[in-house]
């Protein structure tokens, strides 16, 4: 299958950098980053990542809106999306599952466990 390509969409550059370094180092994946929902949608259309890690709380276009737009777009609707969020109660997990999301990852995350969490959610091997 080759190297996985992951798109990390988060308005915090620090989160983008930590996720990129960890996923490249631990899993050997190619990691693209985007600082906003709009940029994330554009990069998803162009680069067709194997998965998108999407922050829920972002200015301008939040993660929920971004996810809806990705799902409505034939070019991106098949790409699995995992939310990255500080708000992750049981009711949130249920709602994400109903939306078709395989999992959500809590912020702050353990950088060394991030690749494993993504791989588990998507049934990938590292």
Q: Topology, pairings included?
A:
Layout: E1 5-9, H1 13-27, E2 30-34, H2 37-47, E3 51-55, H3 63-72, E4 81-85, H4 90-98, E5 104-106, H5 114-122
Parallel strand pairs: 1-2, 1-3, 3-4, 4-5
Descriptive notes:
The protein is globular, with a radius of gyration of 13 Å. It has a five-stranded parallel beta sheet, with helices on both faces. The longest helix is centred in the first third of the chain and has 15 residues, at 13-27. The chain has five helices and five strands, in the order E-H-E-H-E-H-E-H-E-H. Helix 1 links the parallel strand 1 and strand 2 (30-34). The chain has one domain: Response regulator (Rossmann fold). Helix 2 (37-47) packs parallel to helix 3. The protein is an alpha/beta fold and 126 residues long. It has helices at 13-27, 37-47, 63-72, 90-98, 114-122; strands at residues 5-9, 30-34, 51-55, 81-85, 104-106.
What attributes characterize this protein structure?
single chain; 126 residues; alpha/beta; Rossmann fold; five-stranded parallel beta sheet; 43% helix; phosphoprotein; Response regulator; Bact_response_regulator
Give a short summary of the structure.
By secondary structure, the protein is α/β, with parallel strands linked by helices. It is built from five helices and five strands; from the N terminus they run βαβαβαβαβα. The chain has one domain: Response regulator (Rossmann fold), CATH 3.40.50.
């Amino acid at each position: 299958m080759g190297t996985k390509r992951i798109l990390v969409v988060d308005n915090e550059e620090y989160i983008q950098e930590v996720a990129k370094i960890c996923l490249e180092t631990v899993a050997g994946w190619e990691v693209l980053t985007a600082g906003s929902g709009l940029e994330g949608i554009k990069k998803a259309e162009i680069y067709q990542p194997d998965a998108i890690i999407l922050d829920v709380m972002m200015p301008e276009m939040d993660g929920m809106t971004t996810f809806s737009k990705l799902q409505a777009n034939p070019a991106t609707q098949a790409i699995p999306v995992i939310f990255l969020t500080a708000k992750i109660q049981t009711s949130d997990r249920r709602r994400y599952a109903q939306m078709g999301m395989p999992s959500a990852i809590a912020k702050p995350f353990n950088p060394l466990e991030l690749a494993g969490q993504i791989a588990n959610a998507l049934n990938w091997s590292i």
